[in-house]
Amino acid sequence: MELKKITDGLSVSGQIQLEDIAKLKRRGFRAVVCNRPDGEASDQPTHEEMAEAAAAEGLEFRYLPVTPGIVTEETATAFRQALTELPGPVFGYCRTGTRTTTLWSLAMAKEKSVVDILAATKAAGYDMTGVARRIANGGVTPTDSVEDAKFDVVVVGGGAAGVAVASSLKSRKSDLEIAIIDPADIHYYQPGWTMVGAGVFEPSTTAKTMGSLIPRGVHWLKSAVAAFEPKNNAVILDGCRVVKYDRLIVCPGLKLDWDRIEGLTETLGKNGVTSNYRYDLAPYTWELVKGLKGGKAVFTQPPMPIKCAGAPQKAMYLSAYEWEQQGVLKNMDIQFMNAGGVLFGVKDYVPALEGYVNRYGIDLNFFHNLKSVDGAAKKATFTVAMPDTDPSEITVDFDMLHVVPPQVAPDFIRVSPLADAAGWVDVDQVTLRHKEFDNIWSLGDVMNAPNAKTAAAARFQAPVVAENVAADIDGKGPEAAYNGYGSCPLTVEKGKIVLAEFGYGGVLLPSFPKWALDGTKATRKAWWLKEQILPPVYWKAMLRGKEWLIKPEKVAAK
Length: 558
Hints:
One of its GO terms (biological process) is sulfide oxidation, using sulfide:quinone oxidoreductase. The chain is an alpha/beta fold. It has 14 helices and 29 strands.
């Protein structure tokens, strides 16, 4: 008997025998629900026998038989009623546990989201995507048409990657019916938030309305995705609307998991706790930096992967530079708490960064991962996991705490058939095509290619995906190859940047010859690029399908 926990109140399994009832009692269960009709197998006790065994152990018993493949709304309602009436925790079984899990999924549909239900069932080992439409429809079988809309290409996500790839594809094939699905009203230029936190950019320059950026001729479906049905070429939206596609491009970005750090969400934006990873908090970073004349400033970096791996350091260097200019750097105790074991993942850029670490007197603390924050007391607790040693914890005081939250794929991606074991969209790292579903591609932060998650990476990925989708429409194989390019302009002081540009395996991929701009050193040219050139390139080129200085490599012949 292998029990699988769905919730604290319900566990399920496949067929059990009479002697298992006593084991269930010892495990603390107080009620049993049988969802398997009598007579399905010769070794199957009848429900009367099971009820008698349950009564002998003092357990309540309920018989709600479900014919394989036919889970009715009435039975789901009865199951919900049973969970309400029976003492918990409850144990349910059928032949494999699938019917019981399906009943729970439909029974909970009116009080839990599709994503929450799919996450709970997937964690228990059951795939409920086959009933995602019914869950999205409150547990009731939809009576509408099989689809509410149909497009040649559907793009999930209206961020940098989504708008850029839609524009690039539209420029290649103007007659395509393309739809972008995204519920957001505002589109943000997130690379600019580092500069907001340093008082260089105004927050308003990093935000535009989503409607103003949707490419001409592209439809915008302002809704959230609930689930994917890749075998049916369908996306299920909140409210059970169904959008069908010939080809799908998935790029919703990633999820900032603030809640994973205990005590953090309630203290963000006050008590000296800030983060440049949120539009509304970046101005608070600058407010803190300007006002601090002495004390301890702590900057954190969570485990990889995160978007823009250099951003935690950028905030630190720019803050230290400001304190240096104010003449108060000598009064500051700057601590960098990095969950990883290196300052930067590409060694060629480390010497320049170490020079600034020394200049600003920064203490580097590797393998330190933020666990909890007590904002009122101004204390932060870290888990310290040095190699070959048992994990320990330390608590440090702070006057300013700049937090970078843990980052994961969005919930609706992690529970979907598109995800790998770690929850990221599973793609071929060269063509960015899904490894299982030939008419699906992914780009941006959500996919699992081993590249840096940056806007610069998405800028290079967009034409690769657009070219390969266009080739697929023409009946050809993949033609464009992604080399893992990513860029991280490391703002080490106001007016100078170490421009890190690299691809798969840490191979340097500079955009300029070394004599024009040496990215391994801090230069004013790189700052000018970051401050003056990259924002208009983002708004006026990348999001409009103008692929300036980008020419995808060709897929190597086999």
